[in-house]
Design goal:
The chain is of the alpha/beta class. 28% of the residues lie in helices and 14% in strands. The two termini are 24 Å apart.
Length: 398
Amino acid sequence: MSGKVRTGLDRLLEAGPELAGLRAGARVALLAHPASVDRRAHHAVERLVADPRLRLVRLLAPEHGLFGEAQDMEAVDHGADAVSGLPVFSLYGHDAASLRPRPEHLEGLDAVLCDLQDVGSRYYTFVYTIAFVMEACREAGLPVVVLDRPNPIGGLAVEGPVLEPELASFVGWYPLPVRHAMTVGELVRLFAAEFGARCDLRVVPMTGWRRAMHFGETGLPWVPPSPNMPSPATALVYPGGCLVEGTNLSEGRGTTVPFELVGAPWIRPRELTEALRAAAPPGAAFRAASFRPMFQKHRGRVCHGVQVIPAGREAFRPFATYLTLLREALRHDRDAFDWRREAYEFETERLAIDLLLGRRGLREMLEGRAPLDELEATWRPGLEQFRALRERFLLYRD
């Protein structure tokens, strides 16, 4: 696979530790997940263990575990990598304290390498794990090397409300919009400069990536970074599809198209589909669907609902589309529909939908059946301010 894009990992492997300002033989830990692969799909652990220029001595794992075997919100214990034998410290355990590295996780290191594929949505937790590593490394006096990767849904379209600080959680720790159009390397620069995650930060940028690129144009292999992110198409709907987690509807976990499928046993699929077609959110098509989720809500039961189909990548606005879907699902059956009431990402007091929306009052507007333009008007000024802020931290320009 020749490829057009060289990730930060590829560039570090090609040029050596000096590219990141590290000495030969530096003792490093690696924060990684299933998609931490080079352009030939060899995992970073495999490559770095065999590289004599660095000493990989420890592994750190975010939500879902080092190789993505755990479902979302499933605690992962410490362990050892079966192939390399290296210790693996989980940064997603049984309580919120487990999300941050402890001093013993960093003891005896010269640096921490972070190589996580993000999917371009504020909710995706991996970037906050990196931020917590940055804070811990600042206290330990260690540099953090972030190996950059493409934003699979592009680097141009920004959408949705900027998170209000009062609604900060592990599905939104910093004031980002739902779709931020930044890479991990760009985000951590923003985190360090503006949001208090200052440390000795070293970003290894990609080469060959352009902001308008579709992931399929990068020449890189797609490896699911989490169990229900099977393709870049899933990532494209996710800025809206993740909102379904804040309801008692199934988001199709364990099906072949999670987050595209939305439904519940009580939904009348043709009626809901026609309502969505009449609402006509931009760039979206809908079909009536039935499916059986394999995990979590309504597991093993036949659910009826819709499949959301982007009708044009550039025109499709996922957050607007799924806001419309939730509004119509509320209207469809006010007695059966409900917001998620169970604990969500270690949060027990606040509703999951409020954390995901990231802006107070939006849930109430949805319940009142507010039209899309009224919803968007509430967050437009904050979104424009974010657009101006992000310009200072972009590494790639078309």
